[in-house]
Amino acid sequence: MERLNLPFIAQRRNECKLTLQEMAEALGFRNASTYLKYEKGEYDFKANHLPVLAKKLRCNMLDLFIRMVC
């Protein structure tokens, strides 16, 4: 089972010097506060968001996940 690595997403956004508003616009949200709710885990990113996140964060889509071992 895998889940999104939200701390990685936030850290990578900062490393890439991307604003919350830039991420919001890339994902089709109107404002930064909506995106922040996704980044903090209040809302769940949808499957169609993942390729956009990976492209904006300049990483592999697998990097967005925490690998869980059962």
Automatic annotation (TrEMBL):
<dbReference type="Pfam" id="PF01381">
    <property type="entry name" value="HTH_3"/>
</dbReference>
<dbReference type="InterPro" id="IPR001387">
    <property type="entry name" value="Cro/C1-type_HTH"/>
</dbReference>
<feature type="domain" description="HTH cro/C1-type">
    <location>
        <begin position="9"/>
        <end position="64"/>
    </location>
</feature>
<protein>
    <submittedName>
        <fullName>XRE family transcriptional regulator</fullName>
    </submittedName>
</protein>
<dbReference type="InterPro" id="IPR010982">
    <property type="entry name" value="Lambda_DNA-bd_dom_sf"/>
</dbReference>
